[in-house]
Amino acid sequence: MDEAAIKAMIHRLPSEQVLNRICQTFGALQCTTRLQILLLLQQCPLCVTDIENMLGQSQSAISHSLRTLRQLDLVRTKREGRFTVYHLADEHVSVLVEMCKQHAKEMES
Amino acid sequence: MDEAAIKAMIHRLPSEQVLNRICQTFGALQCTTRLQILLLLQQCPLCVTDIENMLGQSQSAISHSLRTLRQLDLVRTKREGRFTVYHLADEHVSVLVEMCKQHAKEMES
DNA sequence: TGAACATATGAACAATAGTTCATATAAGTA
DNA sequence: TACTTATATGAACTATTGTTCATATGTTCA
Fold first, then answer.
1. Within 7 Å: CB of B82 and strand C?
2. Closest nucleotide (CA of A32 to C1')?
3. pLDDT tens-digit profile of A60-95?
4. How many angstroms is C1' of D5 away from CA of A10?
5. CB atoms < 10 A from the CB of A68, how many?
């Protein structure tokens, strides 16, 4: 493969900045806890305690996971009285999660 | 949220086995090198040396990355004379990569 | 205000993943 | 067959990530 062709292909890759951001996003989904959180939040918004109960993990672990998801803007929060309710950030994330589920189905077959 | 509702939501999650597999897949995409490899292979099949040249990384690093992708059945190989040509495993992976690119675009805006 | 509940966070430690180096295998070619 | 090129792999080291523990912050309610 010649120089020119190689350059052309590299040129079609996203910028380093964008690549890093995508990788961080996938990195967040690399952990079952966080993936499960997103799958749950796709069903409905939840407070931290509910998530703890559902996944049977420590308060701290869940909170740290949520922070990671928050920092990547995959989830957002809304204060409701004593509770902090988490929900998926936007339609884009919802599509991402939907794709996970589809991926899961194809994997089962 | 009551016990029954919690159980129902958990029940809708994929099995642990499937979850792990999905997470492994995302884990593979968490590394810019591997993500870039998939983005390149979506453009066209490539041999290892081409990928090395394009990404400017050591032979060993690329080969290890390819192994990870192979083990997750994200890429497959075909021997062509002296060269081992890598290509995306199937349409499903292609969709996954396409989604990355879309993700990238939304990220830029 | 103080007690109880809900959540967040820093620091330390443990687990995982990535990179490099040395070396092995395998095919093509002189 | 020996030599070169192409690729793979194990082991050691390094870096990154996840988990736990202790503690802090913020909210409600008596």
1. yes
2. D18
3. 999 999 999 999 999 999 999 999 999 999 988 898
4. 24
5. 17
A1 and B99 within 8 Å at the Cβ level: the answer is: no
Residue B1 binned pLDDT confidence (cut-offs 50, 70, 90): confident
Euclidean distance between the first and final Cα of chain A, in Å? 38
CATH number (2.40.30.20, 3.40.50.150, 1.10.10.10, 1.20.1250.20) of A3-108 reads 1.10.10.10
Tokens of A23: 């990788």
CA atom of A82 to C1′ atom of C27, Å: 69
Q: A33-57 pLDDT, tens per residue? A: 999 999 999 999 999 999 999 999 9
Query: Number of A:B CB contacts under 8 A?
Result: 110
Cβ contact, residue pair B99, A103, below 8 Å: no
Q: Which residue is the nearest neighbor of C28, CA to C1'?
A: B82
Each residue of B46-65: pLDDT tens digit? Answer: 999 999 999 999 999 999 99
Contact B26, A30 (CB under 8 A): yes
Main-chain phi, psi angles of B31, to 5 degrees: -110, 125
